[in-house]
Amino acid sequence: MSNTESEQSMTDTAVRTDGGTETKQSLRQRVLSNPEPAAIWLAGLALLVAVELGRFVDWALTIGGGIKFILDGIVATPTWVGSNFEGTLGFVAGAVASDITSLLLLFIVAVFLRAYLPFHPDEKLGLDLSRSRHLWFERGFVTAVLAAVVSVLVFTPIGAALKNEVGFYVGILDSLADTQTLLSRETIPNHGYQTASGSWEGTFLGLSARSAWLVRFTMVWVYAAVVMSWLWRGYNVYREHYRRMDWTPRDDVIDRLRSHNWGRFGLVVVIGFIVLALFAPVIATYPIQENVYEPYSQDSEFKYFNEEAGEVQTALHGDANINSRSQGAGSQNVGINQYDDYGRYAPLGTTTSGEDLMTHIAYGAQTSLSIGLIALFLALGIAMLLSLASAYYGGIIDLMAIIGTDTIISIPIFVLVLMMSVVFQQGDVWIAEPMDGGLLLALIFAFAYMPGMWRSIRGPSLQVAEEEWVDAAKSYGQTPLAIMRKHMAPYVMSYLIIYGSLLVGGMIIVTSALSFLGYGVSEPTPEWGRLIASGRNAVSTQSWHVSTVSGAMIAIVVTGFNALGDGIRDAIDPQAEANAGGSGGGA
């Protein structure tokens, strides 16, 4: 190595006090200096996405639809406020209230966008402002810019043209979402019919409906295993070749979690639950639209072999469901791993309505996962903001947070959720429509569980607010929002991760309990608790599978989330396991 290269290497790498090394190169420089591992890993990503491109596009459109729903609700808020004022105080008051609400919403957005301004408008105008006035001026400037943009989009043809342009690209994505993928039921169909000779028509490679479904079911889990291996390989590639430091505390956390038997069990269960939810359209034995939502539509017609007539006939899923109900013994039951009289294979049997139970279980997992994730992220975000603000400012803000959260905590979780669910559903509020009450439950869960999360991180937030680096950031003139985001939030995030992972199981239990009582997710959206309620009278008969399978799924998934939460807690804070006598699981 030449002297120049040696000097460059010494400048690019620093020796830490713990004996490790830390490179000063950017991530881009590190990748360019050794591109082969990253290229191989990205090639694997391209292959995994290519074989399931339509599914990934469909997921993206689903997320985009959720974001659009939220934005539509926010956009409609000023109109709603204005209409209320107009009804009591007149047209002028309604218009003023609507405009003020719009400006307040834009100002909230401006608070977060201000940090991304490419220049300081007060300096451009030659203004000499104090620090606080400088912040308010920039926020007001961004608010004015946003108001001007919104006005142009609303009151000129530009908004309509932009909407049409977005609709054009969304249409292209819709077309991509409908393309056939490796795991789609078009590639591996299982819904066919037998002929008089006993052979199968319309199924994958002429296999029986049972074998064809098992092939697709197995392929889903093989694909999921390959994706998990690819993710783990990506972490190791980054750790070995591109990470700035050759060791971080996160390495010890992952190593402890890998050796935590109880935590590993929970991780496997949670991953399986997520795969079941994400790939519900593939794992489901029949399309949910035909079998559950619209069983009497023209698209729900299918062919089957009528043994009495000795010929192939057609039927609707709705009529077939009526004759395939699991409501007791004998002919009133289609049990686990059986066919009904229409040649439809039911891996887990049928429900009391004759619908495929596997389809309900798969889409019920999707319902539970959606509710849990929405509630969890909302509760985590609100609890984080509230804890950081109350710890940073203290005083009246902290006192108000304590009073408000104590008021909510004083009501038992189940009673609070049940009460709010009944009030909103009977009030016929628009928020109760998506997912047949699922979105409403998610918002109620976020409200009910947020105080507990805030309590769990209030102590660490108060502790970090008194640290020297926070005082140093204040002395350097950093804004409170920047201090909370950069210097306080990373410290308390681990506590939120631990607490949040332990709460998802509770949300699934409460959702199922409410649906069991008839106050949760209503028909026709599949939900596990409602399955238990529908089959509870047949537990002692041959139709035991309706309630038992659903109850077993709830028990396994809730146990898995609790186990994963214990594993994460012991991995992040090993002292907690030592204090508890190692009861959290094998390490």
TrEMBL record:
Residue ranges of the TM segments: 38-57, 69-94, 100-119, 140-162, 213-235, 265-288, 369-392, 399-424, 430-450, 495-522, 542-564
Chief subcellular location: membrane
Claim: Transmembrane helix is one of the keywords in the record: yes
Keywords, sorted A to Z: Cell membrane, Membrane, Transmembrane, Transmembrane helix, Transport
Residues covered by the ABC transmembrane type-1 domain: 365-565
Subcellular localization, as worded in the UniProt entry: Cell membrane
Similarity section: Belongs to the binding-protein-dependent transport system permease family.
UniProt-recorded name of the protein: ABC transporter permease
Source species of the chain: Halovenus rubra
